[in-house]
Amino acid sequence: MNPFLIEDFATPSTIGQCQNHLNPHGTFAICMVSLDLLGKDLARLGDEKLASIYLVPEEMGRFSSFTYSKRRYEFLGGRIAAKSALVKLLNIHSNGTGSYKLWQNMHISSDEKGRPYIMVHDDEKKAILTDISISHSGDFAVGMALKTGCCGIDIQQITSRVMKVKKRFSIESEEMLLSASIKKDSSTTEAPNTYMTMLWAAKESLRKSLGRNRVPGFMELILVGVDMILPKNGDEFFYVFNFRSNGMKKHIKVIILPLTKYVLAFNETS
After folding, report:
1. Cα separation values, 3 from 32, 36, 41, Å
2. What distance in Å separates the CA atoms of residue 43 and residue 162, rounded to the nearest whole number?
3. Handedness of CA 245, 248, 250, 254 (dihedral sign)
4. pLDDT tens across 8-26, in order?
5. Cβ(259)–Cβ(138) below 8 Å
6. Taking the domains of the chain in order of start, what are their residue ranges?
7. Angle at 93 between CA 25 and CA 266, to 5 degrees
8. Distance of CA 29 to the CA centre of its chain
9. Helices (H), 7-116
10. For residue range 101-115, what is the model confidence (pLDDT) as tens digits?
11. Per residue in 27-79, pLDDT tens?
């Protein structure tokens, strides 16, 4: 197990419940990478040596072009997270010397609109195209892979900066709805910068999943409902944000998973 892969950001049961609220018939996988731990491994083993395990030559070319180490960590971490999500999604198993071959069979590229997708070659050399989404913020990178449809994921570090730019992505009615809906108690008091970060991350994830034809503007995605899910088995609570968008007949759901000092938002669309 790679030390920079974070397996316990949410329990499997929580992720399963999130899936049921999004689409009971769909299947997705999410993986998270600690950029701090990845950076330490890169420093210990050497950037090129470690990156060449996970990246194909075309990806290595882009990795090597980055001057700043932070950008290198984000690029590599995002691709490791997305490829690891695909391994989990397709239940691909490998060990020992086979691991290098496994990663080299996966190639992440972007379409003409900049949306990433992943291509993996199976044992019969047939190419399998899978929709993915990548995000990074602060010390983390995340990747999501989906069997059918389009997915979007976004992670945002919670800072006060969001309040300075909120008018760029939100309207007053959304802020009022969030203020009235988000859980407030002694252990999980959500300050305005927290729930506005939730809204920002949710809209960013939607712009990614809906952006295959045209990326919608922030103001085209309007929050109309917030449901808080409190599992009875003690798993993490999470939120389901409901959005309406111009030209769409039904509401779109986004899962919001609060993490320590971060917000994780993800969705899938057909």
Report:
1. 11, 11, 9
2. 33
3. negative
4. 788 888 888 898 888 877 7
5. no
6. 5-148, 155-269
7. 40
8. 10
9. 12-22, 35-45, 47-54, 57-65, 69-90, 98-104
10. 678 888 898 888 788
11. 899 999 999 999 999 998 888 889 999 999 999 999 999 999 999 999 999 99
Rounded distance between C-alpha atoms, residue 102 and residue 12, angstroms: 24
Joined tokens for residue 266: 């993800």
State both tokens at 207. Answer: 């712009």
CA torsion, ordered 199, 201, 203, 204, to nearest 10 deg: 160
Instruction: Sort residue 215 into left (φ over 0), alpha (ψ -120 to 50) or beta.
Output: beta
Residue 61 C-alpha from the chain's centroid: 24
Q: Residue holding tokens 């993986």?
A: 31
How far apart, in Å, are the Cα atoms of 256 and each of 86, 144, 251?
Answer: 21, 14, 16
Q: Could you give the residue ranges of the DSSP H alpha helices within 94-158?
A: 98-104
Alpha-carbon distance values, 157 to 132, 162, 262 (Å): 21, 10, 4
Q: Name the 3-class secondary structure at 185.
A: coil
Tokens for 196, please give them. Answer: 């506005």
Listed residue (156, 136, 154, 186) closest to 267, CA to CA: 154
CATH 1.10.405.10 for the 5-148 domain, yes or no:
no
Nearest to 79 by CA among 22, 23, 120: 120
Q: Give the 3-state secondary structure of residue 169.
A: coil
DSSP 188-230: ----HHHHHHHHHHHHHHHHHHSTTT-PPPGGGEEEEEEEEE-
Please state the φ and ψ torsions of residue 252, each to the nearest 5 degrees.
Answer: -110, 135
